[in-house]
Amino acid sequence: MTMRSWISLYALLIRTSIRSRMQYKFNFLLGTLLAALIQISEFLMVAIVLYKFGAIQGWSMHEIGYLFAVMTLSKTIYRMFADEVHHLEKYLVNGELDQLLTRPMPVLLALLPQKFRLMPGEILQGGFLLWWSLDGMMADGQISWVAVPYTLLIIGTGAVILFSIGLATATCGFWMTRITVLQNLTEDAARSAAQYPLTLYPKWMISLLLFAIPVGLVNYVPALYILRGELGGWILPLLAVAALFCLLLSVRFWQYGITKYQSTGS
């Protein structure tokens, strides 16, 4: 099959998954509302502290809101299109991966659209927070309109980086089987830490979040240039290259890992 055929098939599987999800509209609407409330409440707790003290390590409320928004939207794109990567453990434990192995298509392509997630709550919350942050900084003269297309670019590269981290972590399941604890570290904890300026952390942790688990490349590093004019314009194309490198590395790791898969026999 050609690449165009794979893309068409992937789109068909996504549409099928969406129709399945929309059979329970009330559950979908309630989940959307709760997701939005949970996301916004997390930032509100930080905003209360910032309102009291003004800034954290020199980062204003609008700047930290920007970090939150970029991370939220990047994560949302990743989890919308590849949520089942995060839930690979159930496929390994229950033997459901065997069913995907029998399909005449790459296993990863068969896995991704299994349960396509509609996440309007996260999109609305992240979008509102991003608009509020950019509008506030533009009003203060800190940034110009050029920050908007730059931000859209880094949300895309950020989604690729988060997907790469998630795929590499999931691949470890071919050896470990149970990977929930590892995912809590590499995805949830690391992503939560990167919602704040990395200067808050000791040097060893900054290195960890920039190189070993590169969530700092999603929002903090590009924000230094977009919001503060630091590092230089070369950082944005370099981030795009880094995202592509992370993707290729994680896919190669997946291809190697799947050769080590041992069925449960169930």
Automatic annotation (TrEMBL):
InterPro entries: ABC-2_transporter-like
UniProt KW keywords: Membrane, Transmembrane, Transmembrane helix
Transmembrane stretches, start-end: 29-51, 146-176, 204-227, 234-254
Pfam families xref list: ABC2_membrane_6 (PF06182)
Name listed for the protein in its UniProt record: ABC transporter permease
Organism name: Paenibacillus campinasensis
